[in-house]
Amino acid sequence: MSARDILARLRHGQPLDAEALTWMAQALAEGGVSDAQAGAFAMGICLNGLDDAGRVALTLAMRDSGRVLQWDLDGPVLDKHSTGGVGDCVSLILAPALAACGAYVPMISGRGLGHTGGTLDKLEAIPGVTTQLEEAQFRAVVQAAGCAIVSASGDIAPADKRLYAVRDVTSTVDSLDLITASILSKKLAAGLDGLVLDVKVGSGAFMKDMDESRALAQALSSTATSAGCPTTAVISDMNQPLVPSLGNALEVAEVMRVLTGAAAGPILEVTAELGGGLLASGGLAADAQAGAEAILRAVRDGRALERFARMLAEMGAPVGFADDWQRFLPEAPVICAVKAPRDGVVSAIDGAALGMAVVGLGGGRVVEADQIDPAVGLSEVVRLGARVRQGEPLAMVHAARSEAADAAAEAILAAISLGDAPVAEPKLILERIG
Fold this sequence. Notes:
The chain has about 425 residues and is an alpha/beta fold. Helices cover about 45% and strands about 15% of the residues. It has 17 helices and 12 strands. It has a 4-stranded mixed sheet with strand order 1-4-5-12, with helices on both faces. Strands 6-10-8 form a 3-stranded antiparallel sheet. Strand 4, helix 10 and strand 5 form a beta-alpha-beta unit.
């Protein structure tokens, strides 16, 4: 077996079997192929595609290119993955809620890049919290709190890390097969008993088209299930932020309001939808509806907050954070309102533009090495269908400097459209798959 043989088969449109894909994944992980060969492999997959069996084989090969965790716990090991949106901090509520219901959640998450925020960046807005844990510490946090949200170590799916870097510079990021294998190789390496996928569609998502989102949801759920991890998917609306804040510390504040019972809204609906199906698949609820009700009870009676606080304490958060979280979260020095230019009804929100406004404030990354200011962002963002009067706030900007606040205000005014006719708020859960 050699890279030349595999690339020749791809060039001639011949299918790749599990043996060839396993060889390539190991070669990617161990440096056995050049960047040129890795790029040619990515381009061949992008142009010719894989059949269902090939997609499963590539996913398993990339998973097995590094360490695959195994667990010996008294409950099912469950997790979720979101394709990314704005104001989407579901993981910070769902993980502890699942733990409160008897599951274990070893969530390996990512950082923000582009217009979407990263779960790890949000957690690290809490002073002292570190998400880079050694495996022994990771296991200890999962055992103690029932959940841990951490970054991937270097030995988790190393083939994906190598291939993703090549895809980024060879314009092969948007291959359905490569996206599926990339996402699932890391998730399945966590040793899961069940997985739920939240595939976003709309102005604040990477995918704007329902057909594309459905194709991705089906590919992910069927591939993961065939790889031995029972998986379902939900397609959810992302035509407006899920919570009224964007930015790391500001989204943590929204999470704390939900966990302490001071807020609810769409984020709790999505959390219950995702968690309900997971609990049912893990044998912790009779069906998805019963599971959703269990998730809501865990949030409302404070058990999810207790699990979240325990996880944070294990990961370095200040003592008493959950009791007095407002005192610990960083605040931006410049806070100002973006006022409606006229009376009207909020008719459209460009979520990606709002996300990039946060990046412009310093709250996100253009390239992976960028440093993040955890305090900056937007809050009190209006929702679709809201009626506003001239001079009333469309959002509040939290900035490090007044010049940055002014630039963000211009971006917000361009991103939020006002009309005159009533607008119905879109349905949140659009489709369930698997």
